[in-house]
Write a structure and sequence with these properties.
alpha+beta; Yope Regulator, Chain: A; six-stranded antiparallel sheet; 6 strands; globular
Length: 148
């Protein structure tokens, strides 16, 4: 597996900060808001998308939700049209991602996998949840089971 560069790690930190700047205020009004959590980009891996080239795929944990996320591995370029769909093909199946703006030129493609993290006990538990998610989506389905 390709190791992420310091610039890529910095970009992922900035992605989490962009979510916070753009969404935290509204998230605090949600019944699903968990004050023990913060936006954090976790478990990212390099992935070669047949259409988009080198990408980073991982999980974005927020105080309200858990996203499967894909961002360009290099310079982000232009934001695709908001809501534009792209199918991400992983060993476990195909996932429909939508382009979302996080403000200030930050964006990602995402699929909301969990929309309520109110019962997650803290940041370590959220990190373990993200790890399990990524282990499952990056592994092929067990024999006899379908994809996602």
């Amino acid at each position: 597996m390709h190791v992420l560069t310091p610039d890529q790690y910095a970009r992922l930190r900035e992605l989490a900060k962009a979510w916070t700047r753009t969404h935290l205020k509204a998230a605090k009004a949600s019944a699903a808001f968990n004050p023990q959590l913060a936006a954090d980009a976790l478990c990212f891996q390099c992935y070669l998308d047949p259409e988009l080239g080198e990408q980073l795929v991982g999980a974005l944990v927020t105080p309200v939700s858990l996203w499967l996320v894909m961002v360009p591995a290099g310079e982000s370029g232009e934001l695709p049209e908001a809501g534009a769909r792209h199918w991400l093909s992983l060993p476990s199946g195909d996932y429909p991602l939508e382009a979302v703006s996080l403000g200030e030129g930050q964006w990602c493609r995402r699929l909301v996998l969990l929309d309520d993290l109110s019962d997650v006990s803290g940041r370590q538990a959220a990190s373990r949840l993200a790890q399990r998610l990524m282990e499952r989506v990056m592994a092929p389905p067990a024999p006899g089971q379908g994809g996602a």
